[in-house]
């Protein structure tokens, strides 16, 4: 169980209190929540979107699905899902499909779904499929820096 080096350095440089929560290997957000015994509404997932090479990380709970129409409306522009190759190039020290929701650690603009705006505790992928980072909600939102909030998901 090893979290991404980029993520660990980012958290440690900011002197943030966090816990690493190990869990059996799981490759989807909903299965990760189940394996780690954490509420799906508290598990964040990051979805890398792009427009002409400009990448942004949309962050939403594991229990919700990104709605591109709502995201396009919020941004005033059309964005698409990044390819697997693009995700690997942006997150080189993370396993495929284990994108941490702290895009600011990689210099990305973050788009935060409003459903996470008041969450008291959150879990973030550690960059692999066997560990999560547990943070209190205010610390998580502070780590995102200047991000845009919006309603761009629906419950699944």
Automatic annotation (TrEMBL):
Listed GO MF terms: aminoacyl-tRNA deacylase activity
Superkingdom of this protein's organism: Bacteria
Annotated YbaK/aminoacyl-tRNA synthetase-associated domain residues: 23-141
InterPro entries: YbaK/aa-tRNA-synt-asso_dom_sf (IPR036754), YbaK/aa-tRNA-synth-assoc-dom (IPR007214)
Pfam family, one: tRNA_edit
Record's protein name: YbaK/aminoacyl-tRNA synthetase-associated domain-containing protein
Organism: Thioalkalivibrio halophilus
């Amino acid at each position: 169980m090893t979290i991404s080096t980029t993520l660990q350095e980012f958290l440690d440089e900011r002197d943030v209190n966090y816990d690493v929560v190990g869990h059996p290997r799981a490759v989807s957000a909903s299965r990760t929540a189940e394996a780690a015994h954490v509420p799906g509404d508290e598990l964040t997932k990051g979805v890398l979107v792009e427009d002409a090479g400009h990448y942004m990380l949309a962050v939403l709970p594991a229990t919700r699905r990104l709605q591109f129409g709502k995201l396009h409306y919020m941004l005033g522009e059309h964005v698409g899902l990044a390819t697997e190759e693009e995700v690997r190039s942006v997150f080189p020290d993370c396993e495929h499909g284990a994108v941490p929701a702290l895009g600011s650690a990689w210099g990305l603009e973050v788009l935060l779904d409003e459903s996470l705006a008041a969450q008291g505790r959150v879990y973030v992928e550690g960059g692999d499929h066997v560990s999560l980072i547990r943070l209190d909600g205010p610390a998580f939102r502070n780590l995102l820096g200047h991000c845009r909030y919006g309603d761009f998901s629906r419950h699944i």
